[in-house]
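User: Quick one: structure for sequence A, then sequence B.

Assistant: Sequence A:
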Amino acid sequence: MKIQTNDIEIPVSLKLHQEDKKAYIKLDVHNYENKEILLQDIPEIFFDHYCNDFHNKYTLFVLKRDNLKENQITNIYLKKTPEEKEKRIGFIIPTMAIESQEHDFAENTYFWKFSNAALQILFNTNNNFIFPNTIDISQEKIYLSDLLGGNIAFLVIEKKDFDISEIFSSIIRYGFLLREENEENEENEENEENDNLPKKLNLLNISPDLESVKNQIFNILKIYHLQSNSAFKFFLLYQIIEILIQEIFQNTKNELLESLENQTDVDKIKEILRNYTSEENRLGKLVDTYAVKNGTFKNENIEDLQNACKNYLHAIGLISSCDENIGMFHNYIYKIRNTLFHNFRLHHESNNSKLDNVVNELLKIIPKILFSYKQTTSSKL
């Protein structure tokens, strides 16, 4: 790891003194031979749970989140398949929590073990993280949160070489972004809507049937949270849906060819092609057949999304009343997609908050779709 101060990149490493229970960062600066800065207020309990095998047991990801608080420590549980029970796999730990015992996990031995592993991995000289906060390298002590930034948290997974793309859709819905290795720190204005965070996050694994497109989805989601425009956010989430319905088309090509094989009626051929190539039909197939196992599209699970869509469609004049029946998921999502893609003139900035509600509710549904997606050779379109 490196820090960048006054346009100079300085390699730093971690030095833990087990006997006197103090932690130092060691700076590799030519003019300051063996310069060490004390990490302030690291509790003694941190040293009682020293982790010797962090390289073989843990994977660390650095996250950032607006308005992060020291008590927003979260147990991470993972459900890999609809049939499998959830299992605890790690923690999300704000940097401020490691320099304090004024939080709910102050006596939790697992928390301190994971915290110890996180710091040792982070300060390993083999990684490429650069934190560009300007600090006085002649100072004797510093807070970890001042060194790294108050909006930084550690996602520590108890598995070597864990693939974050497997769970990223579940993480970003809670307001977390992935902090890249060579990236400037940015702290935005506080957002009260982003303040609540459960003590236990139940994350969903992306379906193994989406292995071939997993990285495409991951890259889209990384871009998503860098955007502030609600229309572009919807566009990015819909790109994920398009990836899925393209997968459905690939999965049903043989059915299409079989349906056309002995067909001689031109109108019938046109109808068959329309049914298989129609984006709205394939979107319907997604919700009716490919992603239904965990009850994602039961009315009670998508009622908030449906209401958000009604409010937006009413605001832009496409439905006459918020009580109007707007059909199933694939009907109203496709209607909003067409409006934004082809009739953006209907959108006005006064409706941004309503479109934001649509986007926020859709973001909650996406992880469930990715989790429950199952390749099938079911009935024809």
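Sequence B:
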Amino acid sequence: MSVANFLTHIKSQSPTFHCYACGDKTESLSLVAQLSHALGSPADLTAIQLIQEYLGPDADCFIELYSEHDGLTLYRDRRGDAEGLHLYNAEDWEPRTQEMKDGFSAMGFTPDECPAGVIDSLAFAEIPHSGNYFTVKVSGSDRGSIFYADHDDFTDTAFAQTLDEFLSRIVDDPAQFLYDVGCYTRYSDGKTPTQWIPKQFQAAPK
């Protein structure tokens, strides 16, 4: 059900974030950021088979999602270059996973020192401009769980137990989701260098 709700959410007309200026302790919602999404085409049979091979019995929700969109980018700023979340094409999961591991290695971490989300996992998404990844466990007791591989705040706790739960966290409160993953996504008024932090999501302006 969460995949269906998520697909409805990303097809909403004229989505917006109501934002406050970075540093404004009153959090006055003084900017309405106009948003768009970039939605990939449905996955082909090769991509679906790849997901099945990677995830086995935990593949169903991913296949339901990727059967509609093989990759997508959400909450893009129409005035600037901000993007909220990027899900990779299925064929990019392996190279992105290697990129993630190489990044942690370059920071001086051994495989045993990496956060839980890097180990026995595949990277399927990222928060743009953060260097952090969302991963899905492919083995062990946490198989199928979603982790946030955050190079600033290591954690061994799953971000969500399933893809359904992960998507529900997004749909329930997109602005809170972006805040919870580090508040990296900042919007623009198109006129000043002020960074605007999303606080409230609306599917359409009032």
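The helical segments are 2-10, 45-55, 60-66, 93-106, 163-172, 174-180. The CA atoms of residues 111 and 181 lie 23 Å apart.

User: Thanks, that's what I needed.
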